[in-house]
Amino acid sequence: MNDRLAIVFIVLTVVIDAIGIGLIMPVMPALLGEIGGGGVADAAIWGGILSAGFAVMQFLFAPLIGALSDRFGRRPVLLISLVVMALDYFLHALAHTIWLLLIVRLIGGITAATHSTANAYMADISDPHQKAARFGLIAAGFGVGFVLGPVLGGVLAEYGTRAPFWAAGALALANATLGFFVLRETVTDKIRRPFEVSRANPFGALRAVTRLTGLTRLISVYFFFQIGTMVYPAIWAYFLTERFNWSEAMIGLSLGLYGFFYALVMGLMVKPSIARFGLYGAVIFGLAFEIITLLILTFINNGTLLLVMIPIAALGALALPALQSAMSQTVRDDAQGELQGVLTSVTSLAMIIAPVAMTQVFALFTREDTWLYLPGAPFLLSAGLMVICLWLFTRSSVPSEAQ
Prior knowledge:
This protein is mainly α and about 400 residues long. The chain has a single domain (about 1-185, about 200-395), classed as Growth Hormone, Chain: A (Up-down Bundle), CATH 1.20.1250.20. The protein has helices at about 1-25, 30-35, 40-70, 75-95, 100-110, 115-125, 130-155, 165-180, 200-210, 215-230, 230-245, 250-300, 305-315, 320-330, 335-365, 375-395. The protein is globular and about 65 Å long.
């Protein structure tokens, strides 16, 4: 029962992380205009700076937080981070200068790095055969938060641009209170490891983790997979506007549908897929679906067909929890926090690279003087990355129990 309550807490933590990311999307243009006094173009520039700063801090601090959780325990790291996250949201609500808003977004990037500790906690309380399904629950939680965040942000914005931040802070505090009562510590003296500064940064941690047999290629697969799948948030709205001239409402509907089916796949299909194909087969299955989906999206010219494709596109996400489980089974129990910290940093690095790369490719193939008009070109690039993932994964050393 205690573990079940802990799982609920961990999933809620990820949901709140995702809600916090999506919550600010509807209100950020108005908030930046309110604070900076500029137009939409100025707000867009500052919005890009804030997003990049958030991702950079997550990249830099995820291994540190993971290493701290390996040394001092998951419980204090998670609870303290949630309290700081709540205070950060309250500062968002009180910010009246662009520089203060930048500072609190940087702090928000640090607290969002606790995603690694949430994954490490889930690994601690799971047997090897349970890990993929439980990592799937975490991913499902992120999908639910991705759907709820923009919706809640839009609804609460009716009460002012600051209202969504007060609500997010209250949610984080409520979850910290739940965690205080239900979260047991999982780091015992048997698996506790000393804190080393050299391993508490993204570069040192990556060097240390990839020394383990087979992890270098698996982390490379994870990195390219993250860049490839970030094509959706990076260019989706621009692609639908250019290709189909869809309204904001239709674009929001399509995003909500994807988030819904993504959560459904992660919550209900990971376990039976692993039982049917094994971890190795589930990764292959997910990558194959991603390649097929991305190739179809590259050349699609029918909006109705695109909506039909969304549930199929969500199936590609099955590769992620299976891949995470394979990596988790490769490292020792006392290095789970470090591994998850590295994976969070890798994700953050992908979040820095992908939007720039994908939007540049989109612009190159949609401008008036382009040599080839192809709005779906970023999807073709992502399909190529998935082919690389498939090639690397089939040549990786995967734990025997994952075959």
